[in-house]
Amino acid sequence: MTGPGVTLLDKSEVLAGLFACWESLDRLLAGLTESQWSRPVPLPGWSVHDVLAHIAGTESMLLGSPTPESDLDVSALEHVRNGVGVNNECWVRHLRDESGTDLLARFRSVTEQRRAVLAQLSDDDWNAPTVTPVGPDSYGRFMRVRVFDCWMHETDIRDGLGRPASDAELAGPAARLALDEMAAGMGFVVGKLAGAPQGSRVAIELTGPLARTVRVAVDGRAQVVDDFGGQLPTATITMDAVAFTRVAGGRAAPGAVELGGDREVAAGIVEHLNYVI
Question: Which domains does the chain have, with CATH numbers?
């Protein structure tokens, strides 16, 4: 639901997803060997250890900790593309010398503090406009972005460790909220990045445990809609939902994708699915 200028989201639902993701990360990482902490993940230049350092660093920042200075100009690194990436890399390098055990202890401490802060937020504070990674919106939307980010990085870690999530694990609230956040960005992908023509009705059919249909109508501007008012889509894209998240996050190239209707429009959208900063 969208209020005056902001997205209004249920606080208990979003926090349940965020906390569930933190708990899942804790279970996944507990007992790793140092060699497992060092395994590379799909993100260039990062290891399992680096991903958790990034998450712990971001939550530390949200508690008010300043971004640490780096030992080098991280903006010159090939995989750092913007200011957000600079901040992320500063935390990663700052925490790189910590053992995996110590880093996990830090993560537990920081997220416990964040739990307390978030649980005490009033509804007014939750719905208040703020700066978010997706532009000005509610603090609640910012926290759904945090669910998305943490869940995506949990999947990065799972890829690095060779421990894919089970269907039961995908059925939790974090995966659904992460996909909600990604679905909200499909108007931008279809209209701005892919340039779908006026009148387009695009149905992105996601399959597997996270199955859903994301519908985008281009009418003046592209926006996500609940339905097409009884009309059929002009272009369809069918793919596995988890694969969709990996493509959209720049982690993998499109695999098995079925295109229907206006295949040229559909193919252009798939080509621009990698939209996450």
Answer: 11-164 (1.20.120.450), 183-272 (3.30.1050.10)
